[in-house]
Write a structure and sequence with these properties.
eight-stranded parallel beta barrel, 22% helix, globular
Length: 498
């Protein structure tokens, strides 16, 4: 069956305003990449960095981006700094990091970023050296924030996962004094426009001193509460996801209060990770993935570990649905747009957008209505914040009045919806723009979504752009019909409009 975009026109003759109403067809099947969401792989693996081996991305870039380019947009990077436990990071290490970030940029990727000291033991570094390394990394994180999706707190314990540790207390101390200092150093070093993810919700609760989930009012405010998100590297595991939802000491291993806390506040801060379930248990828990990713608003997940689970997702058909819905999946349902507007006039635009994904966007991103005629293009920003387009099938209505540029030439303009990356370095790269899940709307060359309608820029002041009644009087002067609108006289040519 051929999918069509339906357009009909409503004309308000008494106000000389016509609007096209477009109905869009949702694409609920196609799997395609979108920025800052989806399945991930860990690039670099178990590489202990040194001055002579100072890259994680570069050694594997050729095969990796050939394999995953155009399929994924995120990679997990863990920089293992075990050779620098008792000394500062060298210029070679910092240079290698910058070069790795440029390789991501060149290939249209971003990263989930973590630093640690070992994958094979709990032998991390003492607090003084951890803080020194974070201080050294801070300007390099800021310079490369455009290709960092989120940062994980890292540094403490085996894999940087804040559990087994030689220098930061035993496994039940989620936030002792030394761990608190690492968290504070990372909050300072993490770019202000990026989230810092903690491994256990109890870390955030202990640091803030309460159990109040982030509210809609405080979300995206830049406060500490609004900047700390979550990652779960034991997704679907027993015992409350290996203590992810557990309390320290004698508390429960799987606390429903902590689960609800994560469900509530991950509408406004990111959540993701990987599953570590292996063996026969994978067959018992794999079906929970869809409901739990939906409830806890997962935006990214590693597929390599554990393959026992992800292979079950594939063989059962669940994997494709997770691939479609992880993170955001925006769909246009209808748009109501004036068919003709004057230069310098106003146009009321009503868009209905459904988020079929498990999560919203989290990093700031503007939305533009773009008018294109040949090589002329005009972008008009919307006020709506896509970070607040709620997931799991919620439809958001955007009802805004746009100011049309006064200098725009007359002509017929194709209309687009554009969501480029917020970073100037990536804004013109279509690989970093958001694609909507609709039939017949995506323009891969420009990274814009076609609204499948046009707007005529008339150059005639006889057309009123506001869909509210103007103050208009009819006047007959020397046999010529004229109108007075808001105190100004206009000639009516050819047709009486009133």
């Amino acid at each position: 069956m051929k999918h069509l975009t339906f357009i009909f026109t409503l004309c308000f003759v008494s106000m000389a305003v016509c609007a096209n109403v477009i109905t869009y067809t949702a694409d609920d099947q196609t799997i395609f990449p979108n920025p800052e969401r989806g399945f991930t792989d860990e690039l670099g693996g178990e590489t202990m960095l040194s001055d002579s081996k100072n890259h994680v991305v570069k050694p594997e870039a050729d095969w990796y981006f050939e394999e995953f380019g155009g399929k994924q947009t995120l990679t997990v990077l863990i920089y293992y700094l075990g050779n620098y436990r008792t000394k500062g990071l060298s210029d070679k290490i910092l240079q290698g990091f910058d070069e790795d970030m440029q390789i991501l940029r060149d290939n249209g990727f971003k990263c989930v970023l973590r630093f640690a000291y070992d994958w094979n033991s709990k032998n991390d570094a003492e607090l003084q050296w951890v803080k020194r390394h974070i201080e050294q990394l801070k300007p390099h994180l800021a310079a490369n924030s455009d290709v960092i999706y989120v940062m994980e707190t890292g540094f403490v314990g085996q894999w940087g996962e804040w559990y087994y540790s030689s220098n930061f207390g035993n496994e039940t101390q989620k936030l002792n004094n030394n761990r608190r200092q690492v968290l504070e150093a990372m909050l300072d070093a993490c770019p202000s426009n990026r989230f810092l993810l903690v491994r256990y919700p109890l870390i955030k609760l202990s640091y803030l001193g309460d159990e109040v989930p982030l509210s809609s009012e405080e979300a995206f405010s830049g406060s500490i509460r609004a900047r700390i998100g979550h990652h779960n590297d034991a997704f679907l595991a027993d015992w409350g996801n290996d203590g992810t939802y557990g309390r320290d000491g004698d508390g429960p291993d799987d606390d429903p209060v902590l689960r609800q806390y994560i469900a509530d506040e991950t509408l406004y801060v990111p959540n993701g990770g990987e599953t570590n379930v292996e063996g026969s248990l994978a067959s018992q828990v794999y079906k929970q993935a869809e409901s739990e990713m939906s409830k806890y608003h997962w935006s990214f997940c590693g597929y390599s570990y554990s393959r026992d689970v992800t292979d079950k997702w594939r063989s059962s058909g669940i994997y494709a649905n997770l691939d479609r819905k992880m993170g955001y999946r925006y769909q246009l349902t209808t748009a109501t747009i004036p068919s003709a507007v004057n230069p310098g006039g106003e146009a009321r635009v009503v868009l209905k957008i459904k988020n079929a994904g498990y999560a919203p966007l989290y990093n700031e991103r503007k939305v533009y209505i773009v008018l294109k005629n040949g090589n002329k293009s005009y972008s008009i920003p919307l006020q709506s914040d896509p970070r607040r387009w709620k997931p799991n099938g919620v439809v958001t209505t955007i009802d805004e009045t746009l100011s049309i540029p006064a200098e725009i030439p007359a002509g017929t303009y194709q209309l687009y919806l554009h969501m480029p990356d917020a970073a100037e370095s990536l804004a013109a790269d279509p690989r970093y723009a958001v694609r909507f899940a609709n039939v017949g709307t995506w323009d891969a060359t420009t990274g814009m979504n076609k609204l499948n309608t046009t707007m005529e820029i008339t150059g005639s002041t006889a057309i009123n752009q506001k869909q509210t009644a103007p103050q208009v009087d009819k006047i007959l002067r020397d046999g010529q019909l004229m109108i007075r609108k808001n105190g100004k006289l206009y000639t009516v040519q050819g047709t009486e409009l009133f």
